[in-house]
Amino acid sequence: MTDTDLIGALRTLEREALAAVAAAGDEAALETVRVAYLGRTEGSISKVLRGLGALSADARPAVGQEANRVKGAVSEALEQKGASLASSARGPSEDLTLPARTPWRGGLHPITQAVDEIWHIFRDMGFTRARGPEADTTWYNFEALNTPLDHPAADEQDTLYLVDSVLLRSHTSPVQVRTMEAYEPPIRIVAPGWVYRRDTYDATHTPAFMQIEGLVIDEGVTFVDFKATLAEFARRYWGSDTQVRFRPSFFPFTEPSAEVDVKRVVTKPDGTKVETDWLEVMGAGMVDPAVLENVGYDSERYTGWAFGMGPARIAMLKHGVDDLRKFFENDMRFLAQFAE
Predict the structure, then answer these.
(1) What is the pLDDT, as a whole number, of residue 269?
(2) How large is the average pLDDT for residues 50-75?
């Protein structure tokens, strides 16, 4: 057989092989085609390649080149057909019959919402926002606030000490002292922040919780200003029908001191309105003159008032939640109720 005849035979094998590849309906049939044409022992094209050694030196290059071209074309067709069959076996990459997935919708934590709402109300009444360190000294946490270190609140049973006289603040009141040390009156601040105590984790207590401190210092500030401002806050937060009550109490850094209670008007699903019981929402009072003197203020010239409230408790009252721990268990079914 001449080189021309061999080249013609190779092209015929190419057409047959490509047709057989195209007709293969599955991977088994495709493997049969591969063996028939490219198999090492029985493959038709492989036999031609093995016979190149019997050709003359002049005929061998042309036939070898054509044989390699045909082998490459058939190999490429086999590879493409194999990929197509494998893709069909897997099915479509996307099932367009599935229902659409809505994007994940995040939201602010209900306690964060309470902090923001409280802050916005006081901001509208002329207050600015202040902050202080969570790890503070006994001077700022106790002594400057007219609380001696032999007071029960300063005992290790209640307070988390770090080293020497450094502790995790047990309230946000140290921000009062730091602000008064840094600025001259008039002062009107609210100071949200985390505080820490040796409390048992239960339905009404957590060892770490948010607190919001408020402070007003100026000339001529009276108890009337104190009551009017907090009553206005309560009406803006809980509604215009909210009633406010001030009960005598005691705190080392305020004199006189008061517990602030609110009574809300709640609308039932049937439209009727009912009053709640009195609910305690914060402790407050006029700043003790000793605290003013500890920061270098003239207590004869300046007066002021302060308050402290827990936004988690505020959120519990607002949303009717009966267990504080629900806010911290990261149950998305619970938290999703408060998404804005």
Answers:
(1) 76
(2) 78
30 CB burial (10 A radius; 0-12, 13-18, 19+)? buried
Instruction: State which H helix or E strand residue 14 sits in.
Output: helix 3-23
Please count the residues of the chain. 340
CA distance 221 to 321: 37
126 vs 278: CA distance, rounded Å: 28
pLDDT tens string 248-303: 999 999 999 999 998 887 777 787 888 888 888 899 999 999 999 999 999 999 99
All residues at 6 or more sequence positions from 182 whose CB lies less than 8 Å from its CB, including other chains: none
- Tokens describing residue 68: 């390699």
Q: At what angle do helices 27-38 and 3-23 cross, to 10 degrees?
A: 170
Annotated domain spans of the chain: 3-90, 110-338
C-alpha to C-alpha distance for 128 and 134, rounded to whole angstroms: 19
Q: What is the mean pLDDT of residues 319-340?
A: 85
d(CA 21, CA 13): 12
Cα distance between residue 248 and residue 233, in whole Å = 20
Residue 173 identity (one-letter amino acid):
S
Q: Please check the confidence at residue 198 and state whether its pLDDT lies above 60.
A: yes
Across the chain, mean pLDDT equals: 87
What is the value of pTM for the model shown? 0.67
- At residue 1, does pLDDT exceed 60? no
If you classify domain 110-338 with CATH, what class do you get?
alpha beta
pLDDT of 173 strictly over 80 = yes
Q: CA angle at residue 229 from 179 to 173, to 5 degrees?
A: 30
User: Comparing C-alpha atoms, which of 68, 310, 63 is closest to residue 199?
Assistant: 310
